[in-house]
Design brief:
Layout lengths: L10 E2 L4 H16 L9 H21 L7 E2 H16 L1
Parallel strand pairs: 1-2
Helix pairs in contact: 1-2
């Protein structure tokens, strides 16, 4: 799938609506094959993003885990370290 879509479950603080919208937007862009829809398809594109964001929020709110929440800064630091090693 798309490398830009990041896991959003089990973080402290929880995923924001903006993060979920951005993930939904990336998903719709990937499916449609376009980053900016034509005027004719703009409404359908935005409806898809909104619908997927709503489904994603419902999913994240209903998931349960016994693991402690992950720290966002720690996960981001690990990702930066992997990127640095990969592109060094």
């Amino acid at each position: 799938m798309c490398r830009n879509i990041k896991p959003l479950f089990n973080f402290d603080p929880p995923a924001t609506d903006e993060e979920i919208h951005d993930a939904a937007l990336q998903f719709v862009r990937k499916l449609s094959g376009t980053t900016k829809p034509s005027k004719r398809n703009e409404i359908a594109f935005e409806q898809a993003v909104s619908s997927i964001a709503g489904c994603a929020r419902a999913l994240l709110d209903s998931l349960e885990t016994s693991q402690p929440p992950r720290d966002r800064e720690e996960v981001a630091a690990k990702a930066r370290a992997r990127t640095a090693a990969r592109f060094a």
